[in-house]
Amino acid sequence: MRTKYFAPALLCATCTQRCGIVDHAAGRIRCPFERPDLTTDMEEQPGLSDQYRTASPWPLLVAFGFTLSEVGVFLGVFPVAVGGILLLGGSVAGILGESGYANRPWRTLAYLGVGFVALGLIVVASQVSPTDLAVMDTISDPNGAVGRGLAVVAAGTMLVAAGLAGQTAGTRGI
What we know:
elongated
């Protein structure tokens, strides 16, 4: 039978706190945060074995693409918005392909493009009245939300085109 009691004067080796539950049967201090299924032999250089891959660049590109697209769309800067959405869509498709959630990232890229086109068309349709005779005048000289929606539509169209071209060419990755 194991006798356990709380020993506040002892420092735990696992969490370096004063949690020290003394386990007399094992002859050591047992931490409540210790997970026996995760304990392994200590390596001299942890994380530097052949089984681990190098770090992926996609999360940084996703964050940068998201930032550029937000700045471009909210400030109404058309080229920055389009470039940011292209970077965001390509990075998301790349990270999904690398992690194994998508077999072919080109199809994912095209689907993301379709989503961006739909989102942009919703923004444009909410600002332009279809019964108004000056629809083409508003689209040809966009202002405010119409210009932002058209930037999203343009970037989405480019993503669809890139996805279809990559799928047709049969290349494996982005």
